[in-house]
Write a structure and sequence with these properties.
This protein has 307 residues and is α/β, with parallel strands linked by helices. The protein folds into two domains: 211 residues, P-loop containing nucleotide triphosphate hydrolases (Rossmann fold); 65 residues, Alpha-L RNA-binding motif (Alpha-Beta Plaits, 2-Layer Sandwich). It is built from eleven helices and 14 strands. A six-stranded mixed beta sheet has the order 6-7-8-3-9-10, sandwiched between helices. Helix 6 links the parallel strand 7 and strand 8. The two termini are 41 Å apart. The protein binds adenosine-5'-triphosphate and magnesium ion.
Length: 307
């Protein structure tokens, strides 16, 4: 896999304050990357720097394997910042035509139709943007960012202020783009959304990256000591009692054929399975409960700022 975006020790000082402190991460081509962090953590600043809209105080940034160069970037990167950059008094179609011209798109009428259907706004193409809902505006902003078919999309909180149905639509567009091989970088406060669609995440707090990696791997690493077992038949009460007696075992919940328990260091999943098999209980499935992105986020921020 090739790298789409690389930041190496990027720092930024503004008004005597250290806004970013040696921020480093790599995003591979085709990634959906989620950039998380509390208000004021430095997400938008990072985005502005990687788009070349602001210069870092120190550090290196490369896009598609090359050093950052504003003119080059414009061709390869599309972005939506906190303000959507749309003209209220113009129709969706005219907004796109305007941006298409800026990007020197030839055969723009065709491209506009294609992109409008991609963001599912074809039937509202002639309406003034002023009459659009927040969700529709956000989809049009995405269309605007994609008008020149860039390889990388950078989105600052693309679902902020959008209702749940609208969020699903925005996420679907992001997934569609990723399926076409695009690389997506987006910041979000919606941790459930990030868990659902991002294969890689980073968490920034007060300008410092606290956590970075593949979502699934991080979830496994931070997984709870909880085990979920599914048996082919309900476990008899006598066996449950014996199970409770094993060192470090705490049964959290028993429901029909599933049992949720936490195991300490003394008794691992293999020991539990061995014990149950000896009691003639068949195990259909056994798995550790993985930490959710929300749990990871909360626990990391608690570590940084205890209490
Ligand atoms: N032009 C500026 N001059 C001075 N400080 C700034 C400037 N722009 C941003 N900051 C400060 O930098 C810090 C990071 O801001 P940034 O907008 O990057 O955070 P964010 O993670 O995007 O937050 P949010 O989730 O609220 O959007 C904040 O403390 C902010 O006040
Ligand atoms: Mg921001």
């Amino acid at each position: 896999m090739s790298n789409a975006i690389t930041l190496e020790d990027v720092s930024k000082k503004l008004g005597g304050r250290q806004i970013l402190n040696k921020v480093s991460f790599t995003i591979e081509t085709g990634d959906i990357f989620g950039y998380l962090g509390p208000n004021g953590a430095g997400k938008t600043t990072t985005i502005r720097i990687l788009l070349g809209l602001m210069l870092p105080t120190a550090g290196r940034i490369s896009l598609l394997g090359k050093n950052i160069n504003i003119d080059e970037n414009r061709r390869h990167v599309g972005f939506v910042l906190e303000t959507d950059g749309l003209y209220d008094q113009m129709s969706a179609q005219d907004n796109l035509a305007f941006y298409g011209k800026l990007y020197g798109i030839t055969r723009s009428a065709e491209r506009i139709q294609e992109i409008l259907s991609l963001v599912r706004l074809k039937d509202r193409a002639k309406d003034k943007v002023a009459a659009y809902s927040k969700g529709m505006r956000q989809r049009l902003a995405l269309a605007r960012a994609m008008i020149h078919d860039p390889e990388i999309l950078v989105l600052d909180e693309p679902t902020a202020g959008v209702d749940p149905t609208g969020q699903v639509e925005v996420r679907q567009i992001i997934l569609d783009m990723a399926a076409r091989g695009k690389t997506i970088f987006f910041s979000s406060h919606n941790l459930d959304e990030v868990q659902r669609i991002c294969n890689r995440i980073a968490l920034i707090n007060r300008g410092v990256i606290q956590l970075y990696g593949e979502t699934e791997q991080l979830q496994r690493q931070m997984s709870k000591s909880e085990v979920l077992l599914e048996t082919s038949a309900a476990i008899p009460e006598t066996v449950l009692n014996e199970l409770r007696g094993l060192p470090g075992i705490n049964i959290i919940e028993v429901e029909d054929r599933t049992i949720r328990l936490s195991s300490g260091d003394n008794t691992g999943i293999p020991d539990i399975i061995e014990f149950l098999v000896k009691k003639n209980i068949r195990i259909e499935q056994a798995k550790r409960r993985e930490a959710s992105v929300e749990e990871i986020y909360t626990s990391i921020l608690k570590e940084v700022e205890p209490g």
